[in-house]
Design goal:
single chain; Ubiquitin-like (UB roll); Rossmann fold; 4 domains; five-stranded mixed beta sheet; 19 helices; 20 strands
Length: about 600
Amino acid sequence: MITLSINNTRIQVPEGTSILKAAELIGVKIPTLCFLENYEAKGACRVCLVEVKGIKNPVTSCSMPVAEGMEVFTHSQAVRKSRKFVVELLLSEHDGDCKTCLRNDDCELKALAMELGIDRVHFEGERALKLIDDSTPALIRDSGKCIKCRRCITVCNEVQSVGSLYPQGRGFQSSIGPAFAHMLNSVTCVQCGQCAAVCPVGAIVERDHIEDVWRALDNPDKFVIVQTAPAIRAALGECFDYEPGTLVTGKMVTALRQLGFKKVFDTNFAADLTILEEGTELLHRLKKTLVEKKEAFLPQFTSCSPGWINYMEFNFPEYLNHISTCKSPQQMFGALAKTFYAEKIGVLPENITVVSVMPCTAKKYEAQRPEMFQNGIQDVDYVLTTRELGRMIKQAGIDFRSLPDGEMDTPMGISSGAADIFANSGGVMEAAIRTVYEIVTGRELPTENLHVKPLMGLEGIKKASLKIEGTKPDWSFLEGVELHVGVVHSLGNARELMEAIQNGEQFHFVEVMTCPGGCIGGGGQPRYTNDEVRLKRIEAIYREDEGKSLRKSHQNEAILKLYAEYLKEPLGEMSHRLLHTHYREKEQLGF
């Protein structure tokens, strides 16, 4: 333990602790713009400067470790002057018009300038080159707003292992972006939006679909329905100053009705459907390999996360046959809305507009994939992030906190608790195990409160095994089989797991989520998301699951009725036509 003083307060911290983290322990906030929790400090922004007795110039607190007897001052005159100088320099180069910037209400640079009492910028001069990159369906980059904090570089390379963003050039001419000033659509960007989630300003944002949705709602010829992903209910409240992890499901439903949507449905309905389709697919693959002794492309990977699909198409195309052929719940819902539901209400598919509210920017890309059209009709028309829905509710003047709780419409708003936990890393796997185990054995999963504890939490790679015993006669080939499953979140961890599989590690089923913590940490969720926030959202989702009487996908009566009246059976002809797809290798740009 190291003893030091911060602002004349003595404190003991473990050796190797940074001054920044030590200050947090005594309730002293040191501002930062480049720091990211759990990753090596870069000291790039120079905003976290502090004074250390005996050292001539202020030092960066994020990268300076504590030392025995160190005396630190976090707001001395020298520190205040240095911070203001640094922030004024950033503002002088920043091409930001706060009046119209998408980030004007949560811009970290603007907030910091206000905290430091900066009322004007003393430096006039050339601004950074402004380049707008709107080449992808999900993200828009504005280089003129970039403050070169390098957070996006850290998350793209160290967290996601994608490698689409790099620093280039030196000095004033330096820039952040794809190599050789290429656009995002010409590199291996998976459009996960984690760069937008950590950007402190408006240099990378999601492509805004709010005006498109308003136009659809204003069109009397359109029957506009909305689906909401499970992660939204545990995060939307943050847009209205609720604590992270506050469940606002009922208020969200009421707000969506007041916005003008004809029906408010739940992506969870399609998540339950996904479990029946994907679980049946897994059982068929197991039968093929164990009984027929044929290649069944195991392990089977989940297909709910579009960023993960993009990543595989770029990096591991030889494993594309291992990905479940199931569309994601978002796309399954859209396909059914414009077939099954359209027939049910007597509206032409082309007159139905499906809007999704998702925690994920890559869902915007997924909705536009050519595989996601049926007879020229797009499954999902527009995708709003959680942040966009928050802005839309505010645009409508709705007092969210005073809203009464509403309920989802039927039949595509009925869902199980198993569908709720799709939002969390490990949730899809747990939901699948609940159903597959009971189908095969006729018994409920023998775990505490139906949870599979080894698959829960924020560990990057999680593994579990389950021995199948006492099977029904139809599934006797699985008697005694040790089912090996893996769960991974964030693409850097996914790469590590894929390399382990290439080297011979055996799994039957693997869940992959693109974003840290799963969908609750998606690129479209309210900022700023760290592990503390992720854990609060995860806990809220488990509360939602545990508070339901229906907690298994195969017991959802609305899903069973859908099969009886329309789809007939999992993996049947109609299911294959509407709910399944295949993916293709993507070329990487060669430099």
